[in-house]
Amino acid sequence: MTDVTNGVLHTLFHSEQGGHEQVVLCQDRASGLKAVIAIHSTALGPALGGTRFYPYANEEEAVADVLNLARGMSYKNAMAGLGHGGGKAVIIGDPEQIKTEELLLAYGRFVASLGGRYVTACDVGTYVADMDVVARVCRWTTGRSPEKGGAGDSSVLTSFGVYQGMRAAAQHLWGDPSLRDRKVGVAGVGKVGHHLVEHLLKEGAQVVITDVREEAVRRVAERHPSVTVAPDTDALIRTEGLDIYAPCALGGALNDETVPVLTAKVVCGAANNQLAHPGVEKDLADRRILYAPDYVVNAGGVIQVADELHGFDFERCKAKAAKIFDTTLEIFARAKKDGVPPGAAADRIAEQRMAEARAAR
Q1: Which domains does the chain show, CATH number per domain?
Q2: Which of 264, 290, 296, 358 is the most buried (most CB within 10 A)?
Q3: Which ranges constitute the DSSP H helices of the chain?
Q4: Per residue of the chain (361 residues), what is the pLDDT tens digit?
Q5: For the Glutamate/phenylalanine/leucine/valine/L-tryptophan dehydrogenase C-terminal domain, which residue ranges apply (predicted)?
């Protein structure tokens, strides 16, 4: 357990993202590990969520992020119909600089000490090879390589689920799920984004891409010469004739600066926590932009890693991820019926499922 500053305590106990069951601050001086594990809810089962490895500016920022991410996982797992609650972990530091086998093993021991209340997996900055190391000391690890009994890269089904969410948005808005000739802007073509581009191109969509990493853009553009490259996200969201905007990088993509200039009629992407603050979804609705809740459409990955705990079967997982199409349509219908934005409708459904589970227990 790490030393806790007054700032971290303030974040923990005065956060607007309250209601968490447990927050563990972890430190291993020998390896340099500093991490935070947050368990938001175990109403539906053991908390499940990935490990983010990121160079946060300070501990307060890391705690705020993990609280938000853990809460989001509770809602995501509930909407995906999984027998899991929500949790998340963050490791503080630049993975390119401090990630070592010793550090990952130390982290795995902290996860193992929770006795199965939290099941970890990959996230930003962590990969299948990292989970293989963590699994050496922690049985509650998913996202491992097939050679180690795991399901491998979860970004494959994450992108497939987002693609299904886009099809549902097209069905709801235009009366046809086809994305042929639709212009789709993908911001972030890393682990998930580049797979999404392939789904879109296969269906005949026009794709515009951007990424802060030049090598990521170059890799996709060389493989798919038909894509258009925007110089940055600001240019992408202002692209004329854009039908769908897909944020696939870090959170907060929809904010007071981006929403007023967004040309797309639909937002559906893989990034977590796309809304910078609660008022943003109303701003989208006021501009008649249809928002597909991020934690619903990007659930393909968590569906995959959850299945790994029971003996992974890719086709079974893909069939479950395909149901994101129906779930997204259900949310749009509920939003229309209740007169609320889609995110609020999704929240209500997820909260009802968690409340019913708590009552049953």
Answers
A1: 6-63+85-148 (3.40.50.10860), 155-300+311-316+324-352 (3.40.50.720)
A2: 296
A3: 6-14, 59-79, 95-98, 101-112, 128-134, 155-174, 193-203, 214-223, 233-237, 279-286, 294-297, 300-308, 314-322, 324-338, 342-360
A4: 344 455 555 455 555 556 899 999 999 999 999 999 999 999 999 999 999 999 999 999 999 999 989 998 999 999 999 999 999 999 999 999 999 999 999 999 999 999 999 999 988 899 999 999 999 999 999 999 999 989 888 889 999 999 999 999 999 999 999 999 999 999 999 989 999 999 999 999 999 999 999 999 999 999 999 999 999 999 999 999 999 999 999 788 999 999 999 999 999 999 988 999 989 999 999 999 999 999 999 999 999 999 998 888 999 999 999 999 999 999 999 999 999 999 999 999 999 999 999 888 7
A5: 152-361
88 is catalytic: yes
Amino acid at 286: D
